[in-house]
């Protein structure tokens, strides 16, 4: 299999580490560089364009199958999750999978007045109960690539009246996202969405919006953008834009170009490409006597091999070690040759 994306990518090593950070497309680098140079020269319209931020918002909305009015922009997952956490009533029960990513969990645990429960990922749906206020979990586990049972969790939450928070950081960009199925979704942009770090997205259903406190509200969150510079904001945006953080323009000028590329290539095409590479890698590992985590995810965890990451890096193959696992993660810019090179080094 050959890479997707044409001349947009030019890795100089075997890069299987998108779950840590994506390669930036050429067009994204050009957009960020152009804005930086314009700003250095004295850009007439300030440090960046709100119109381009809205281009990124709209592009993400299309990728997430939800209206752009349901998307807020920000800088990181933990900031978005923190807003959800601060909006929960004291004593509310929050249900997580054991070992999920810290940024999904910690904004809730630091409250000190919430009831926190952890259960194995495979028991998440059946562990929802009438007392559960929110089920918060990652679509794909960062540590080992396991994929949650979306339908089961959604059905269990609905049956018990619990809200849902899905972290799509390890899935958005290769796995179709239907954000309207969840009360809240969050996604860091710098992994499979190919964005510069500093771009992230929050989706909020219209029904869930009233339960969310806009703790980052400022002049950019007003219904009318340019009339709220001084004094209290007269009226918050009626859309999810009321939950925006002030956008980091360099990141979002790049994000708009990256998300456009994903739309051009197509998420379904990327999904098939990534899964095929991951399946070949798993099969090769099994042939070598290893036992990768069983899943169809593009993120492949191999228990007990985390200690090999440094040796692979020295051989020009970039992967990660996470929770004792060797973690390989495939994306559109990878090829069959990348898989075979990694297997060759692991085989020794």
UniProtKB/TrEMBL annotation:
The keyword Transferase applies. GO terms for molecular function: transaminase activity. Keywords: Aminotransferase, Transferase. It comes from the Bacteria. Residues 15-292 form the Aminotransferase class V domain. InterPro entries: Aminotrans_V_dom (IPR000192), PyrdxlP-dep_Trfase (IPR015424), PyrdxlP-dep_Trfase_major (IPR015421), PyrdxlP-dep_Trfase_small (IPR015422). SUPFAM superfamilies: PLP-dependent transferases. This is Class V aminotransferase. It comes from Streptomyces showdoensis.
């Amino acid at each position: 299999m050959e890479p997707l994306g044409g001349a947009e990518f030019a890795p100089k090593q075997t890069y299987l580490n998108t779950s840590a950070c994506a390669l930036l497309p050429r067009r994204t680098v050009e957009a960020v560089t152009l804005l930086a140079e314009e700003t250095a020269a004295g850009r007439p319209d300030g440090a960046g364009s709100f119109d381009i931020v809205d281009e990124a918002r709209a592009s993400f909305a299309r990728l997430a199958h939800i209206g752009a009015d349901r998307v807020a922009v920000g800088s990181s997952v933990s900031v978005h999750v923190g807003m959800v956490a601060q909006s929960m009533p004291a004593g509310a029960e929050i249900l997580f999978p054991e070992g999920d990513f810290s940024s999904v969990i910690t904004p809730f645990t630091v409250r000190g007045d919430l009831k926190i429960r952890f259960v194995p990922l495979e028991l998440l749906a059946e562990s929802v109960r009438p007392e559960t206020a929110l089920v918060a979990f990652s679509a794909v586990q960062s540590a080992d690539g396991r994929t949650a049972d979306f339908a089961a969790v959604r059905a269990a939450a609905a049956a018990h009246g619990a809200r849902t928070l899905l972290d799509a950081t390890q899935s958005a960009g290769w796995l179709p996202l239907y954000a309207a199925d969840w009360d809240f979704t969050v996604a860091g942009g710098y992994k499979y969405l190919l964005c510069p770090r500093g771009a992230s997205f929050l989706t909020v259903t219209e029904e869930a919006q009233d339960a969310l406190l806009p703790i980052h509200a400022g002049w950019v969150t007003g219904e009318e953008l340019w009339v709220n510079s001084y004094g209290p904001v007269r009226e918050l945006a009626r859309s999810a834009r009321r939950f925006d953080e002030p956008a980091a323009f360099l990141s979002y000028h790049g994000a708009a170009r990256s998300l456009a590329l994903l739309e051009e290539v197509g998420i379904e095409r990327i999904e098939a490409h990534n899964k095929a590479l991951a399946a070949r890698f798993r099969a090769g590992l099994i042939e070598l006597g290893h036992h990768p985590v069983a899943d169809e995810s593009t993120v492949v965890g191999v228990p007990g091999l985390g200690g090999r990451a440094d040796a692979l890096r020295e051989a020009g193959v970039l992967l990660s070690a996470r929770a004792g696992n060797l973690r390989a993660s495939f994306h559109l810019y990878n090829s069959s040759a990348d898989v075979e090179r990694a297997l060759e080094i692991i085989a020794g």
